[in-house]
Every structure is written in C-alpha cells, then in structure tokens.
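Incident log, entry 3
Record: Mitochondrial inner membrane protease subunit (226 residues)
Problem: checksum mismatch between cached and fresh output.
Input:
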Amino acid sequence: MLRWMPRWQPIKRLALIKPRPFIRMTSNETKPNQPQQKIRNTWLRRRFSLSVPVLHEPPFPIYLRLAIYALVLMNSVHVFFTYVYEFDSTQGISMLPTLASFGDWVFISKYYRRGRGVKAGDVVSFKHPVRIGENAIKRVLAMEGDFVLMNTPGKSEAMIQVPQGHCWVVGDNMLHSRDSRMFGPLPLALISGKVMAKVDRPGTLPGFSWIEHGFQPAYIEDDDVD
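Fresh output:
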C-alpha cells in the first residue's frame, strides 16, 4: 500500500463492564450494595472494546497526489486501448460496402492481437507493412497453408500458398483496394485486432452494427448439375 494512504488506528472508548453476580434474596434479607467491578483481563478488554478509526494526515500535498492519480488514470487508459478494446475511425473506399469511405467508427477487439484466433473471413486491423506508421483494415481471405489467387479473379490464374505465420488480406471493394495482391502475404504479428462492430447513426441515438463473417459455405444448385 502506498505510504500516503490513510492508516487506521483504533481508539478504545468503552470497556465491557462485568455484570454483578446473581444473589438469591430471601424475605428477611436486603439487597447488598456492591460497587461495580471492572474487568481486569486485558484480553477481554481488547476483544470487547469499541474502536473508532482515525485518519492520519497524508505526508504529500494535494497537488502531488492529484498528479499521481492522473498518471495512474492515464496508464490505465493506455493499457485498456492497447490490450483490451479500441475505437477508431475509417477512411477510404477499399472496404465498401461493409465500411463507409469516411466517418465510420469501428469497435476493435485487442484479444486477436498478433493473429490469435483469427480465421478466414474476419475483418482485421493491422499495421501497414509498406506505409510505416499507418493502420489498415482488410478482410482475411486465406490463412497459412491455404492456396489463393495472386491477382484479381479473371486476370490471372496464378496461385500462391500462404507461408507459415502469414495470412492473405483483401478489401471488400477489390477493384479499388491495395492489399496482399500488392504487398504479398501479411505477417500475423502485424495484426493489432479484429473489427467486431461499427457505430451506426441512423437517428439521434447511435447503435452498434456487428460485422458479419464475409464467407458463406459453397453449394451447388440443381440447374448447374448436368
């Protein structure tokens, strides 16, 4: 505990007084006038005494304590936004129509830092591998060991296997997105979190809209079967 925190010191106020012994009276006897006796047992005094807490004056002035409290609050906020959750705004058209080109606020879970628990189809936030100091939001298309097209579908049939410790990310608006098709597989260590929801403002009160998984299981319609 910090030295300037208040300490408690009990003050003995009252002590339990030993009751008078019971004496059976007869009709011819009178009640003896005996003085009250005090308890001499120190253990009983400590056990049954009433204590009142007393605060000691802190050794540091008020402005120094306020500065320390502000520093602790700032560190707590930093830890929360670094290792728990984060709110961030979006800018750009690469994730249309999932995220707006400007003004959307997203809710990012830091539990998925460094790719922990990330799966194909998740929308992740990561440190840009080319533009130092910038963050980007893309959708994970493939994980390590998966095969994926190196270019936009229809342009080339060349495929690549995602190396270990990496993932392949693309934007939902593939025609206007700079993603793994340009800078290659993304290291999982650059992932800073998973986008869980975005803030919707259709009316006066904002609400959350959860980001859905981008992939659906493949199926074959009856018309496609020969």
